[in-house]
Amino acid sequence: MTRRTILPIAVLVLLGGLAWFQYSRRFQEYRSDQFLMDTLISITVYGKNQELLRTAVAAAYAEMRRIAELADGFPQPGTAAWRSSDICRINDQAGKAPVPVDDDTVAMLLQAQKYSRLSHGAFDVTVGPLMELWGFGGNNPHLPSPEQIRAALTLVNSEDMIVNKQDHTVFLRKAGMKLDLGAVAKGYATEKAASVLAQYGIDKALIDAGGNIRVIGRNSRNSPWKIGIKDPRTSDAIVAILPLVDTSAVTSADYYRAFEEQGKRYHHILDPRTGYSATHTISATVITKDAGLADILSTVFFVLPAEKSLELAATLPGVELFLVTADSRIRHSPTLSGTIEITRSDAYRYDEGR
Ligand code: ADP
Ligand code: MG
């Protein structure tokens, strides 16, 4: 080879190297995990500037922690954590007085109340007394007596939760009422975190809040993010793969904190109209842009019968639904047909989602 050819090759290699360097510089990855709201949260972001990525993720976590503290129902009375929890202070004043709260608490509760009405009570954040009775918050969940359930049910009704938007106060009408934001706060906090990342100019990110997924933009290869929906009955198996761009996917399923008693399976998602664990569905995944809405709706659609859920989802713009029902069927919104990949049609009946 002459020096004349070596030079262009060297230039080409150099240019190639530069292009590669530019490319990888564009998509530096930064990931940080934190334990919050009883779950491992993971935020992964991509961008040019490592320093900016770190700052943005730290700010996103600060915002998540703030929401988590407002919504925490379990700190010890008298502690600083108890005083900074709007939910604890509202519950403490049930039947007594309205409590001044943060704007975000007002927003979470108004949204929750809206979907209680829309679901005719299948979803209800005043489910606290029932959750406590079943003991799902602690280490020893157990089957209560029918009398105990009847008594707790008299305290469950979102219409007795008075949210005053002007005064920023919340009042529970009956003594003994208790809010439980277990189905709301994680998604709301996730959406807030996504907004913070966007404010920092982040355009590629994945937030995984214990299976509540929110993505910004596309992944580092400029493709849709791909997430798997867990098989609710076989650990480590996946029933479907979903491509996601600028949206969220949130699953409510019956395999957390489940126990068996007298040959029956009980779990932490209750039907507030009966007081017992909901039985129609074993896994409900909602795909919609707002992770807060997705969290609420995943619980709504877990509790309602599949047919009702699919009907209701079809009336909500931008909302898609994927269900694994108790009679081992996979069903989903018709709009998912083109994008979703079903991977376990052997274990479940799948008639093109119908
Ligand atoms: P995950 O535990 O996976 O986040 P969900 O988002 O469905 O699942 O939330 C379940 C939690 O919501 C329960 O642990 C409880 O705190 C609360 N909850 C249970 N049943 C209901 C209901 N019908 N409506 C509103 N909240 C509920
Ligand atoms: Mg939920």
Taking the sheet with the most strands, its summary is:
9 strands, mixed
As residue ranges, the low-confidence spans are none
Percentage of β-strand residues: 15-25%
CATH class value of the domain at 224-354? Alpha Beta
Mean pLDDT level: 93
Taking the alpha carbons of the first and last residues, their distance comes to 66 Å
CATH fold naming of the domain at 224-354: T-fold
Describe, in plain words, how this protein is organized in 3D:
Among the domains are: 74-172, T-fold (Orthogonal Bundle); 224-354, T-fold (Roll), CATH 3.10.520.10. It is 36% helix and 24% strand. The protein is built from 10 helices and 17 strands. The strands form 4 sheets. Strands 1-2-6-7-10-13-14-15-17 form a 9-stranded mixed sheet. A 3-stranded antiparallel sheet has the order 3-5-4, covered by helices on one side. α2 packs antiparallel against α8, α5 (103-118) packs parallel to α9 (291-303) and α8 runs antiparallel to α9 (291-303). The radius of gyration is 23 Å and the shape is globular. The mean pLDDT is 93. Adenosine-5'-diphosphate binds at residues 123-125, 127, 131, 136, 180, 182-183, 186, 252, 256, 268-270, 272, 295, 298-299, 302-303.
